[in-house]
Amino acid sequence: MMLRNEEGYNDPTADGVLQEMARKEREKTLGRIKIAVHMARDLFGWFGFEIEERIVLRDKQTGKIWR
């Protein structure tokens, strides 16, 4: 669904900017998750364990759950 301006018309410029901002934030968060999971795997590996199942994370700032 496209963002609409005050007069009710589609506003592709504003919509594109907001979508790009959301994409960049998502990529930033996924980068943090990738680093955290890599570190967790290494840590457990040092103690002789492997992660077998899915890791579920909740972002403390946004409350979003990543599965």
How would you describe this structure to a colleague?
With 67 residues, the protein is mainly alpha-helical. It has one domain. It is 52% helix and 6% strand. It has 1 helix and 2 strands, in the order H-E-E. The protein has a two-stranded antiparallel ribbon with strand order 1-2. A hairpin with a 6-residue loop joins strand 1 and strand 2. The longest helix is centred in the middle third of the chain and has 35 residues. The chain is rod-shaped and about 60 Å long.
Please state how the strands of the largest beta sheet are arranged side by side.
1-2
What portion of the residues fall into strands of 2 or more residues? 5-15%
Q: Given the helix and strand composition, which structural class is it? A: mainly alpha
- How many structurally independent domains? 1
Q: What would the average pLDDT be, to the nearest integer? A: 89
Keywords:
mainly alpha; rod-shaped; 52% helix; two-stranded antiparallel sheet
Summarize the structure.
By secondary structure, the protein is mainly α.
Topology:
Layout: H1 12-46, E1 57-58, E2 65-66
Antiparallel strand pairs: 1-2
